[in-house]
Amino acid sequence: MNEGIMNESIPVLMYHSVSENPTAATRRLSVDPGALDRQVTFLAQNGYTGLTFSHLADALVNGKPLPEKPVVLTFDDGYADFAQVAWPILRSHDFPATVFVTSGWIDDAGSHAAGHPLGPMLNWAQVRELAAAGVEIGAHSHSHAQLDQCADAALCEELRIGRILLEDCVGTPVRSLAYPFGYSTPRVRVAARAAGYRCAASVRNIRATASGDPFMIPRLTIRRSTDDNDFASIMSGDKRFYLRDRVLTAGYATVRGARRAGKRVVQHG
């Protein structure tokens, strides 16, 4: 494997809704369109080259060369404002993107509707158009379930249905996945591989490296509260910036593990 890749850490940014007037449910993890434009302008002016999530995963796994300053922009859930607002901004700066779509939340999902969308969502025609324009379409489960809490059969269905519906829409294999809420366990990652995925995104708020698990590629959370100075700190690799997030994530992992253990006791008691 190329030594440069082995030693490199790559920022993979996680966005959600991009809207001036987000819903109450999406507000905290949304960004204002003007903020996104400034952030992408910052990346362009500072020599960053955008990659899709699968492109990065393939390079890290197979030791393929990367540009000098790679960055990946990902957008979770599949909000309608990606097509209406975010993609025009990205396209104007010639930056690619990966959208992780919750298939059951699609606006015209019909009989396949599942879960509870948090805002206006993409429809199937928009997903197809985005894929044709070069946006990578990845899966985000079918109903946005907490996969680490699902029983085995339900877990497999969440992963299978999400991938199949998206592949039927875009006409190409869907090989990337983002875990809803960022939650995964070894069991979930094994199931993701078995379902046909080749890489998956977590959260973790650290940078990606070649030594990491391709089914646990970490991302950095971009929020509505992320101002221009914050964004510059994130891109500089300031490890102190997400310290509180990482502490909270570690603590909550313990809680979720206890919850899973409690479920097993109830099931087998």
UniProtKB/TrEMBL annotation:
Q: Is ATP-binding one of the keywords UniProt gives this record?
A: no
Name the EC number(s): 3.-.-.-
What protein name does the entry list? Polysaccharide deacetylase family protein
Q: A single Pfam family, by name? A: Polysacc_deac_1
> Which PANTHER family does the UniProt record give?
POLY-BETA-1,6-N-ACETYL-D-GLUCOSAMINE N-DEACETYLASE (PTHR34216:SF3), PTHR34216
Superkingdom of the source species = Bacteria
- Major localization class: secreted
InterPro entries noted in UniProt: Glyco_hydro/deAcase_b/a-brl (IPR011330), NODB_dom (IPR002509), Polysacch_Deacetylase (IPR051398)
Q: Which PROSITE patterns match?
A: NODB
Cite the GO molecular-function annotations of the record.
hydrolase activity
Keywords, A to Z, come to: Hydrolase, Signal
Where does the protein end up? Secreted
Domain NodB homology, by residue range, is 69-269
- From which source organism is this entry? Rhodococcus artemisiae
